[in-house]
Request: fold
Amino acid sequence: MRGGAKWVAILAVILGLSWIAKDRILFVENNGGYGDSTGTAFPIGQDLWMTARHVIARCARIGVGDAPPTTARDHWLFRLAQTVYVDPEADVAILRARIDAPAHPLADTPPAAGERGLAFGFPQGRPAVVQAEMRGVRRAQGAGDFVLTDRTSEWRVEAVSRSDIRSLDGISGGPVLNAAGEVVGVAMASRRDGRAFNATSQAAMTAAAARAGLSLTSRPASRLSEGDPTRLTRPVVCEAPG
Reply:
């Protein structure tokens, strides 16, 4: 895709992520990172957007969805984004894009096993809400030069808001919210059958925000429930070099 500051298409398939469970370790491989891909981002401050690191790895250009489609034939309009911070050991990154959106409050404590949450994003390029239950903690390990040492939360999918979703590819970078509407993790990898996904730890998420210079003073959390994902998240597109 070529053009100016806005793009007018969203790819439907995310490339470059494999998920293999072995010995309670989550292996995440970026597979070189050279290929157009899509993911999800959510606002955490003025013009600041959090996403998963593997979504924007080795991108020539990154776009964050600015204006959603108004008709069935329309496409998202994307605004160019700059990378603000990339965590060296967790699957978290922060982008800057001039898009006005209310920031999500970040949780002060991690989710507990048995706690239910909602993940918002764009699996297969389509806005969706995923209801899930936190099942436990899994240590993440990257492959090759994609270093990961984070202890991620594992979530079992209970329901998806739309029936045309066959996998969760593309929800990476989306927020996982607790019952109070606070972000407790960033979606980062899913099983190929769409029945479970992992999210970055709450500690890694808040540390990344702090390193990017965000103030994490407590503020009231607005209660969020199942609704339009485009109000809470935006799609991200990565244009590969070349």
Q: What stands out?
A: Confidence is low (pLDDT under 50) at residues 1-35, 217-226. The CA atoms of residues 68 and 74 lie 8 Å apart. DSSP finds two helices and 15 strands in the chain. Helices lie at 202-211, 229-232.
